[in-house]
Amino acid sequence: GENVEQHPSTLSVQEGDSAVIKCTYSDSASNYFPWYKQELGKRPQLIIDIRSNVGEKKDQRIAVTLNKTAKHFSLHITETQPEDSAVYFCAASDSWGKLQFGAGTQVVVTP
Amino acid sequence: DAGVIQSPRHEVTEMGQEVTLRCKPISGHDYLFWYRQTMMRGLELLIYFNNNVPIDDSGMPEDRFSAKMPNASFSTLKIQPSEPRDSAVYFCASSLSRDNTDTQYFGPGTRLTVL
């Protein structure tokens, strides 16, 4: 089955700096890669996703890149703000729509 | 749309008791997923349904766990008997169709504490 590894487990950045989270996956058939943000005590919420037919997608301060050859994808947050502090999860979807989640990255943005 | 609805939001019970968690997916969504989240194991898929039929229950920890979906708008996850190690947040999620690139929308979760 699919195995997703996520790094780093914690990330502390100064407000205004960029944050990068990286994930690798094992199943070459995976073709959908969502990123979820989870604030303390809340549900995971989709912030951006990418499908295997594109290499990069951007939404305001958030961007995701995908390298299918190397089987890795990354989340980039620019101009970080305190409200970006949360746990971020990457995931990869197999052909049946099952999502395998990474272990999560705790992002702390300090003013 | 109200989104995915789960109840109860919090449940505290004693070891050995039966626990039933409930979920109402987004109207029109064909897929329903049950997840468990713990610090140690992260987000784990327990079981998922397509058009009310269980498709994959390989993530269900053991026979103490069971899930049903009697109709398109309701699902239950039951633990009987409950144990302290079942303490976790249980999320229900739904998605629109079989296309495996459809977004999964999560409910608010049920925080279960087994004493």
Describe it.
The complex is a heterodimer of chains A (111) and B (115). With 111 residues, chain A is an all-beta fold. Chain A has strands at residues 4-7, 10-14, 19-25, 32-38, 45-51, 56-59, 62-67, 72-77, 86-93, 99-101, 105-110. In chain A, strands 2, 4, 5, 9, 10 and 11 form a six-stranded mixed sheet that branches. A five-stranded antiparallel sheet of chain A has the order 1-3-8-7-6, with no helix packed on it. In chain A, β7 and β8 (72-77) form a beta hairpin. Chain B is mostly beta strands and 115 residues long. Chain B is 0% helix and 54% strand. Chain B has no helices and eleven strands. In chain B, strands 2, 4, 5, 6, 9, 10 and 11 form a seven-stranded mixed sheet that branches.
Write the layout of secondary structure elements.
The complex is a heterodimer of chains A (111) and B (115).
Chain A (H helix, E strand, L loop, with lengths): L3 E4 L2 E5 L4 E7 L6 E7 L6 E7 L4 E4 L2 E6 L4 E6 L8 E8 L5 E3 L3 E6 L1
Chain B lengths: L4 E3 L2 E4 L5 E6 L6 E8 L3 E9 L2 E4 L8 E7 L2 E6 L8 E8 L9 E2 L3 E5 L1
Parallel strand pairs in B: 2-11
Antiparallel strand pairs in B: 1-3, 3-8, 4-5, 4-9, 5-6, 7-8, 9-10, 9-11
Structural class of the helix and strand makeup of chain B? mainly beta
Distinct helical segment count of chain A: 0
Q: What integer value in Å does the Rg of chain A equal?
A: 13 Å
Average pLDDT of chain A: 94
The helix-strand sequence of chain B is EEEEEEEEEEE
Unreliable stretches of chain B, pLDDT < 50, 5 or more residues? none
| Measured distance between first and last alpha carbons of chain A | 41 Å
Approximate shape of chain B? globular
What percentage of amino acids of chain B are in beta strands? Answer: over 45%
Residues in helix, % of chain A: under 10%
Portion of residues within helices of chain B: under 10%
Number of strands of chain B: 11
- The overall pLDDT of chain B, averaged over residues, is 93
**Could you state the order of secondary-structure elements of chain A as H and E?**
EEEEEEEEEEE
Biggest sheet of chain A, in brief? Answer: 6 strands, mixed
Enumerate the spans of chain A where pLDDT stays under 50 for 5 or more consecutive residues.
none
Characterize the largest beta sheet of chain B: strand count, sense, and whether it forms a barrel.
Answer: 7 strands, mixed
> Biggest interface between protein chains, with counts per chain?
A-B, 24 and 22 residues
